[in-house]
Structure formats: C-alpha cells, structure tokens
Amino acid sequence: MDFAASTVVVLGSINMDLVTTTARRPAPGETVLGSGFATVPGGKGANQAIAAARSGAQVRFLGAVGDDAFGTTLRSTLAEAGVDTALLRTVDGPSGVATIVVDGTGENSIIVVAGANGRVTDLTEDELAAIAAADILLCQLEIPLDTVAAATRHARASGTIVAINPSPVQPLSDALWADIDLAIVNSLESARYSAELNRVRHVVRTLGRDGAAYRSSDGSEFTVAGGRVGVVDTTGAGDAFTGALVATWATGPHAAVTWANAAGALATTRLGASSSIPDRARIERALAAD
Ligand code: ADP
C-alpha cells in the first residue's frame, strides 16, 4: 500500500492524563491512600495524530500546550512519534489535563481541564498555510468550535479534504457540516448526529467489536467485520482507527476502512491510549494473517 505522499494536518487537543488508582474513592472531605499513579499523554487530537503518523502519513499537529512541565513532555511525545510539532504553540498557563480516578471496581471519574487547548481561539497565517497545503485536515471537538469552523472553511476553500471526528458530541452549525467530506463516528455519535450525517459525502461508523461500516452519499456502502483479537483495553481504539483511516484515505474507502479496522483492533490488545496505537508494520502483519 503506497500512501507515503499523504500529508495530514490534525487540529485538536493534547492533554496529560493523570491516572490515579484506588480501592475506593474518597467521600467529600475524606483522604484515602491510592494504590497507583501514572501520567499518560492523551487528548483526541494528539492520539489521532500519532495514529496517522504510525500508519505512515506525514503529519503536522496544530494546537497548544502550556508553559509547564507537562507541555514539554507532550511536545516531545508527539515529536518522538514522528509528528511535526513546528507549529504547536506554547501558551502561558497550564497544559490541558484530565484527572482520572479508577476505583477497585474499574469504575472511573474524570475531570477534564482544557487549559492550553481552550486558548486555540484563532489560526495564525502559518497554520492557515499548513491547512491549505495539506491533503487532508482532521479535527475533533475538544478545542473551541469557532476555531474548528475557521479551519474547515479554509480547508474547503483551499481544496483540502475535511475529515471530522465529532466528539465529544455538541451541536455544530450547518456551515460546518457543509464543509465536511468525511465523518468518522462511533455508535453514540452516529445516533446523536443521524440527521446531519445524511448530508455528509463519506460516513464511516465504528462498531466496536463488530468492526466498521461505510456509506457514501452516492449510495455505495459496505461493512468490514471486527478483527478477532484478545481484548485488553479498548481505550483509544477509536482514535487509533480514525488516525489510521485518515492516513490511508487516498487509497480509497474500502482499503482505508480495512486498514483502520485492523489498527483499531490492534489498539485494544494493549493497555492505554497513545501507548497502544499500532504502527504500519504491525497493521500490515495483522492484515496479511487474515
Ligand atoms: P469508540 O472507542 O470511539 O467508541 P469503537 O468502540 O467503535 O469506538 O471502536 C473503534 C474501532 O476499534 C472499531 O471500529 C474496531 O475497528 C476497533 N475495536 C474496538 N473494540 C474492538 C473489539 N472488541 N474487537 C475488535 N476490534 C475492536
């Protein structure tokens, strides 16, 4: 499969996930002793950018980290994955963080603070030029929506393909929907955006263990069955799928959805989000074994 020429710009969020494990969550005012702690780079934008790069695309990330230690680590995490961070901004104040508490029953509580992600309120000339020069722009909804809309408008006007993973679900303007060439949605998003998705040219629905389904406004559709894998942790499978899909989109919907479906399945076989994203060699081996 030859898609090395695809250039992808991801405009989105980048967070540090602070994961604390504890037998039992504290009541208000109470202190308990936890059993573990880890810092894990995350954010849908960063995860999807890493997934696209591991699939072999040339990827540029647009977004912001804070001027704290997390910002430094997040920037190098992207760079080590082969993502171009030349346009990643460093802004005053904290990086985006997600504070996650996982209790002994596996139940979690999460507080997300947007931090630097909330500061991406406009696009610079260099960022607009990067969008115009790319083959494909990929956005999610974890940064200010007006910025997403400005990026999709500019991409459409420049002939750059616009892909969106509209998550977390929130209302989007008709103008933004009109810019979208490709939407990647899970079951929940598919149900919540059902009317709007009818107007999108290419829609890919992820179906968890059942794989993924494609339909186009010209009437073509197909389903790819889920990969048979030993599931360890499904966190990040959707991000692995989306990045892999966008990286290979130029090969055509069927080849790209098949590729992304293998990437999504492999991502469930390891713990974590960004750490579980497979590279091109692993995806090729999994497809060859089918
Ligand atoms: P999300 O995590 O965003 O809700 P899904 O659960 O639909 O998204 O998973 C995204 C993709 O990851 C699926 O389309 C599939 O390719 C892969 N995947 C997820 N769960 C499994 C599983 N249990 N077995 C095989 N593949 C899976």
- Ligands bound here? adenosine-5'-diphosphate
- Unreliable spans are none
Look at the structure and give the mean pLDDT.
94
Order of the strands making up the biggest sheet: 4-1-9-10-11-12-13-14
- Largest sheet, if any? 8 strands, mixed
* Count of domains: 1
| H and E string | EEEHEEHEEEHEHEHEHHEEEHHH
Please tell me what the overall shape is: globular
Can you characterise this structure?
With 290 residues, this protein is of the alpha/beta class. The protein has one domain (7-13, 43-95, 115-289): Ribokinase (UDP-N-acetylmuramoyl-L-alanine:D-glutamate ligase, 3-Layer(aba) Sandwich), CATH 3.40.1190.20. It is built from 10 helices and 14 strands. It has helices spanning 44-54, 69-80, 125-133, 145-158, 174-179, 187-192, 194-197, 237-248, 253-267, 280-289, and strands at 7-11, 15-21, 36-42, 58-62, 64-66, 89-91, 96-102, 108-113, 136-139, 161-164, 182-185, 202-206, 212-216, 221-224. The strands form 3 sheets. The chain has an 8-stranded mixed sheet with strand order 4-1-9-10-11-12-13-14, sandwiched between helices. Helix 1 (44-54) packs across helix 8 (237-248) and helix 9 (253-267) crosses helix 10. The longest helix has 15 residues, at 253-267. The chain is globular. Bound molecules: adenosine-5'-diphosphate.
Write out key terms for the chains shown.
single chain, 14 strands, binds adenosine-5'-diphosphate, alpha/beta, four-stranded mixed beta sheet, eight-stranded mixed beta sheet, 34% helix, UDP-N-acetylmuramoyl-L-alanine:D-glutamate ligase, 290 residues, 10 helices
